[in-house]
Design a protein that fits this description.
By secondary structure, this protein is mainly α. It has helices spanning 2-21, 37-50, 62-69, 73-79, 97-104, 114-117, 120-128, 155-158, 185-203, 206-236; strands at residues 57-61, 90-91, 130-132, 140-142, 159-164, 174-180. A hairpin with a 7-residue loop joins strand 3 (130-132) and strand 4.
Length: 240
């Protein structure tokens, strides 16, 4: 009983610490479209080249991505894999956990399920709201996750942002581009949508199969219900 109480208190305190680290900044509205294979492919390329150096997606395999996105192996090898990877490998990283903890203070988490436990809205807003903060070791901070240990992985695309202290009419802090990146704001918005779209897919690839077969299953059940009802009437007509 005592062990159960201790575990419960630990979970409550852990939840409190996480909540304290995160702000109540309003989250973006995100349109997840898993049927948009072009978006998923673009998002996969951004993930591989911008995130996979530090964060793994170890529950996804390259050949599963190829199958679901309708890609051939050559496309995957050319655009989504590093030279040491094989088509059947999971999407892991070579950086050792002890090295990452030494460099960043924490070990970067695996991102396969990030949209499952954080939400696509949280992830989208988090990746969009990095701003310059000379007080932080990485030189940046974040509106959604205060004092985050992660540097901005998309800075060269988005550019550098600075914080406007006065905020908007509702009192929420605002950001402005102080040094443009390689993309316009609209281009970056599309790229960010693609990245979050891919990670939403990675969190549950079976969604594609469910969406494909779901209407067929519902149609079968509807026909089956009609047949069952007519059969019931036939069996019970003499009783009534």
């Amino acid at each position: 009983m005592k062990k159960a109480i201790v575990c419960l208190l630990f979970l409550i305190s852990s939840t409190t610490l996480v909540s304290a680290a995160e702000s109540h900044y309003p989250l973006d509205k995100v349109n997840i479209d898993l049927n948009n294979k072009d978006s998923l492919y673009r998002g996969a390329k951004i993930f591989v080249h911008r995130c996979l150096t530090c964060h793994s997606a170890q529950y996804m395999r390259y050949n599963r991505v190829a199958k679901d996105l309708g890609l051939d192996e050559e496309d995957v090898k050319k655009n989504l894999m590093f030279t040491t990877d094989k088509i059947g490998d999971p999407m892991t990283i070579t950086m050792r956990p002890e090295d990452s903890k030494k460099w960043f203070g924490v070990t970067p988490p695996d991102l396969t399920l990030v949209t499952r436990y954080k939400g696509a809205e949280w992830l989208h807003t988090y990746l969009r709201t990095f701003y310059l903060d000379p007080k932080r070791p990485t030189g940046v901070n974040n509106l959604v996750f205060k004092d985050t240990a992660m540097p901005n992985p998309l800075w060269s695309l988005q550019g550098w942002q600075t914080l406007i202290e006065k905020g908007d009419k509702k009192g929420n802090p605002e950001l402005k581009i102080s040094e443009p990146g390689s993309m316009t704001p609209n281009e970056f918005s599309v790229a960010l949508d693609d990245l979050v779209n891919f990670l939403a897919y990675a969190g549950e690839p079976a969604q594609l199969e469910r969406q494909k077969y779901g209407p067929k299953v519902l149609f079968f059940l509807a026909i089956f219900c009609i047949v069952t009802y007519l059969l019931k009437k036939e069996y019970w007509k003499d009783v009534h």
